[in-house]
Design goal:
Length: about 300
C-alpha cells in the first residue's frame, strides 16, 4: 500500500504547479495592493503631519526656536564634522530632539496632542484594514488553489458524475474545515487533553476522506461499511503521515537555504499533499469496487 501511495504521489507531481501558480498570484496581488495602500496612507499621513507641525510651529515660533537652539547647542561642533556625527548617532540625540520638539509643540500649542493622536489613529486604522485585506486575499488564494488542485487531480471523478463530485469535494471539505475550527476551540478549552482531541481530529478527517471517495466511486458495488473501517481509517492516516513526513523533509531542506523560500514552497506543497492523500482513497475504493482500470489511471 505504501508503494502504491508513493507511486501516486510522484506520478501526479506535475499538479504541484497549480497551487504554486494560484497561491503566488494571489500573494503578488495582495503584496502589490498592500504596498500601494501603505505608500498612499503614509503620504497622506505625512502631509497632514507636516501641515500640523507648520501650523503649530508658526503659532509657537519663539518656544520652538529656543528649544532647537538649546538642542543643537548640545553638539560639540568645534571637535570636527565626524566627531559631531558620532555624537549625534551614539548619544541618542536624534530621539531626544524629536521627543523634545513634539513636547514643546504640545506645551505651547492648543489642541496639538489631540490632532496628532487623530493622525496617528487614522494611519493605524488604515494600516489594520490594509493588513486584513491582504490576509483575506492570501486566504482566498489558498482556498482557490486547494479547490483547483483537487479538481485537477480528481478530474476523472468529476467526469463520472458532477453531482457526486460536488457533494464529495465541496460538502466534505466544509465539514473537514468545521472540524478543524472546532478542534482549535477545544484545544483552547481542554488543554490537558489536546493530544487526545488531535488524534480524534485526524481519525475524523481520514474517515471523511474515505466517505467522500465512497460517495463518488461506489456505483452500488461496495458498501460504506466495507470502506469505513477502523483499519482503513488508520491506513489512510498512515499514508497521510508518510506524505507529511516528505513535506517536513522538503521544508527543512529549504529552510537551511532560506526560511522565506521554505514557507513559499511549503504552502503549495502542503495543498498538493492534502489532495494526494484524498486521491489515494479514490484508488482504494476503486480497487474494492473492482474498477482496476480506474485505479491504475489515478
Amino acid at each position: 500500500m505504501i508503494r502504491t501511495s508513493l507511486k501516486t504521489f510522484f506520478k501526479n507531481l506535475v499538479f504541484l504547479f497549480i497551487p504554486m501558480g494560484i497561491f503566488y498570484l494571489f500573494l503578488l496581488i495582495a503584496g502589490i495592493r498592500f504596498v500601494s495602500e501603505l505608500f498612499a496612507n503614509a503620504g497622506s499621513t505625512l502631509s497632514r503631519l507636516t501641515a500640523l507641525i507648520d501650523r503649530s510651529a508658526a503659532a509657537s515660533s519663539v518656544s520652538v526656536n529656543d528649544f532647537l537652539t538649546y538642542s543643537f547647542g548640545k553638539i560639540d561642533w568645534d571637535s570636527g564634522l565626524f566627531a559631531a556625527l558620532k555624537q549625534i548617532l551614539t548619544t541618542g540625540w536624534v530621539r531626544e530632539t524629536v521627543e523634545g520638539f513634539f513636547k514643546t509643540l504640545n506645551a505651547t500649542t492648543e489642541g496639538f496632542e489631540e490632532d496628532l493622536g487623530a493622525i496617528v489613529e487614522d494611519f493605524s486604522s488604515s494600516l489594520t484594514v490594509s493588513v486584513s485585506l491582504a490576509i483575506s486575499l492570501i486566504a482566498l488564494g489558498v482556498l482557490l488553489a486547494n479547490f483547483m488542485t483537487r479538481f485537477a487531480i480528481r478530474r476523472r471523478s468529476a467526469k463520472r458524475d458532477w453531482k457526486k463530485f460536488l457533494l464529495a469535494h465541496i460538502l466534505v471539505p466544509v465539514v473537514q474545515a468545521s472540524a478543524i475550527v472546532l478542534s482549535l476551540g477545544l484545544f483552547a478549552v481542554i488543554r490537558y487533553y489536546s493530544l487526545l482531541v488531535f488524534c480524534a481530529l485526524l481519525l475524523l478527517l481520514s474517515a471523511l476522506s474515505l466517505t467522500a471517495s465512497w460517495i463518488v466511486h461506489r456505483d452500488g458495488k461496495v458498501h460504506l461499511g466495507e470502506v469505513l473501517t477502523f483499519k482503513n481509517t488508520l491506513g489512510q492516516l498512515a499514508t497521510g503521515g508518510l506524505f507529511f513526513l516528505i513535506d517536513a523533509a522538503v521544508f527543512l531542506l529549504l529552510f537551511f537555504v532560506h526560511p522565506l523560500l521554505a514557507v513559499l514552497i511549503a504552502i503549495p506543497f502542503l495543498l498538493y499533499t492534502f489532495n494526494i492523500v484524498d486521491l489515494n482513497t479514490d484508488v482504494f475504493v476503486c480497487t474494492l469496487a473492482g474498477k482496476q482500470k480506474d485505479a491504475e489511471r489515478m
